[in-house]
Write a structure and sequence with these properties.
By secondary structure, the chain is α/β, with parallel strands linked by helices. The protein is built from 4 helices and 4 strands. A 4-stranded parallel sheet has the order 2-1-3-4. The protein starts with a strand and ends in a 13-residue tail after the last strand. The relative contact order is 0.21.
């Protein structure tokens, strides 16, 4: 089966966004329930929690993906040629920023799917 990994948006109460992995939904909606879907966390600076606003510890967040994406693909017998990374808002920016953080993590993905606030509309702090 294809597999979709998702980075969530920021905590933003006005829109109902909690920033929590368990409240993600874009990947499920995109897959129509026919893909494996996994919501990836942003690891907090203290390495104890999911960061609900922005990146937390960027390197640790990326390392988490490098370790767990291949593991999940193997364990769930996902199609390694159909590995999508998606995100909404902060997650859309994270698809580009975290998903292309270095060559090793960039090689994990077959394609990106983004919605809202994708890079190019505005310059974001600590991105080029």
């Amino acid at each position: 089966m294809p597999i979709i990994f998702e980075y969530t948006g920021n905590y933003f109460p006005k829109s109902g966004s909690t920033g929590e992995v368990e409240d993600a939904g874009l990947g499920y909606g995109l897959s129509g329930g026919k893909f494996i879907w996994v919501s990836l966390p942003y690891i907090s600076q203290d390495h104890k929690d999911n960061q609900v606003t922005w990146w937390g510890d960027e390197r640790t967040t990326v390392e988490y993906a490098k370790v767990n994406v291949p593991r999940i693909i193997r364990e769930y017998n996902a199609d390694p040629e159909a590995v999508f990374l998606c995100g909404f808002s902060r997650g859309a920016i994270g698809v580009n920023y975290l998903g292309l953080y270095d060559v090793e993590v960039a090689r994990l993905w077959s394609a990106f799917i983004t919605h809202d606030h994708f890079d190019g509309i505005k310059e974001w702090k600590n991105t080029e």
